[in-house]
Amino acid sequence: MEDLKRIVLKKLFSRRAINTSHLRLDTLMKCGWKPHEKGLVKKAIKELVNEGLIEWKKKSKKALTLNVKRIAEIKTIIEDDGG
After folding, report:
1. CB 23 within 8 A of CB 15
2. What pTM does this model have?
3. Cα 27 from Cα 43, distance rounded (Å)
4. What's the rounded Cα separation, in Å, for the pair 4 and 10?
5. Most buried residue, 42, 48, 59, 78, by CB count within 10 Å?
6. 17 neighbors 65 (Cβ within 8 angstroms)
7. CATH code linked to domain 2-79
8. Neighbouring C-beta atoms of residue 33, cutoff 10 Å
9. Given this model, what pLDDT does residue 38 score?
10. 3-state SS, one letter per residue, for the chain
């Protein structure tokens, strides 16, 4: 699950979904996930929202953005190789 969280954060970060920019959930779900992984990805997104690393856009509950206040922490998670 931690690997999926890291990959979701990488995808949001590489598409610059920070602060005013965003990435829609349906677009994120089309980013090369295998069909059996989609349920796990949604669970990982929910956990990341609960941890406060990503947030739903205020005007649209279907768009995600990285929490600008925790960008330094997000960068360290992304750069961590998992080992």
Report:
1. yes
2. 0.83
3. 16
4. 10
5. 48
6. yes
7. 1.10.10.10
8. 18
9. 85
10. CHHHHHHHHHHHHHCCCECCCCEEHHHHHCCCCCHHHHHHHHHHHHHHHHHCCEEECCCCCCEEEECHHHHHHHHHHHHCCCC
Query: What is the rounded distance in angstroms from the CA atom of residue 9 to the CA atom of residue 15?
Result: 10
How far is residue 4's CA from residue 27's CA, in Å, rounded to a whole number? 16
Q: Where are the domains of the chain?
A: 2-79
Distance CA 67, CA 52 (A): 7
Tokens representing 47? 């956990």
Residue 55 has phi, psi (to 5 degrees) of -140, 155
